[in-house]
Design a protein that fits this description.
The chain is mainly alpha-helical. Helix content is about 55%, strand content about 10%. It has one domain. It contains 9 helices and 6 strands; from the N terminus they run αβββββααααααααβ. A two-stranded antiparallel ribbon has the order 1-4. A two-stranded antiparallel ribbon has the order 2-3. A two-stranded parallel sheet has the order 5-6. Strand 2 and strand 3 form a beta hairpin.
């Protein structure tokens, strides 16, 4: 598996610089690789981060940034799950909405556990159609998403989380962006896999100054 977010667009790079709200000093800086066709984020850490006060627009950028990184990570996990259980699913608004909710409530390994289990259950339900080579993918395209949504609702209402975390794939690599934010703002954690997006955003914002309206 390729590193999930090592290559970013010019727009994403500009957004990161804005929402990090960091002043380059004492060896801390963000730079685009010399091969600008890749816009690869290079990160060098040293000294301290000097933060500015954020406004509401900056806060929204941070929220969207974290949610989109986690969504991309979850889609990578689903691709791996699909290789084991080739169930029908479609990347549509229904699925994306449910994945955003999943990541808001659970960390990455517990999210992975839920996604894997629901795929396994659906594969069992469709086994009869599979052996006859008669799976109607159009008919079943939203079943996986709906099963995810149903189980999230059950867990949240029961104030539970999936029974066991599922270890991320052995070749999993965290993005440089995630590592930089974690090391800089999250007390030297190397990644934020053990946090839900709600926890990541809350922790990030608690370390920064926000303008009063």
């Amino acid at each position: 598996m390729q590193e999930n977010s090592s290559n970013i667009s010019r727009e994403q790079y500009g957004s990161l610089v804005r929402i990090m709200q960091v002043r380059v000093q004492n060896g801390i800086y963000l730079a685009i690789d010399e091969d600008v066709s890749n816009y690869e984020l290079k990160i060098f850490i040293g000294g301290f981060i000097d933060t500015f006060k954020l406004d509401i627009a900056n806060v929204k950028q941070i929220e969207d940034f974290v949610k989109n990184i986690r969504l991309r990570e979850i889609y990578y996990l689903i691709l791996g799950i699909y290789s084991k259980f080739p169930i029908p699913y479609e990347e549509n608004l229904n699925l994306e909405t449910n994945l955003f909710e999943l990541s808001e409530h659970f960390d990455l390994e517990h999210s992975y556990s839920l996604l894997f289990y629901q795929a396994q259950m659906l594969a069992g339900e469709l086994f009869g159609e599979k052996i006859k080579d008669e799976i109607d993918r159009e008919k079943h395209k939203n079943k996986y998403s709906n099963k995810i949504a149903s189980y999230i609702k059950y867990l949240v209402n029961s104030q539970k989380k999936p029974n066991y975390p599922k270890k991320l794939p052995d070749n999993w690599q965290f993005s440089r962006i995630e590592q930089f934010v974690s090391l800089s703002l999250f007390d030297n954690q190397h990644n934020w896999a053990g946090m839900s997006t709600r926890e990541i955003i809350s922790t990030w914002l608690s370390k920064l100054s926000i303008k009063s309206e």
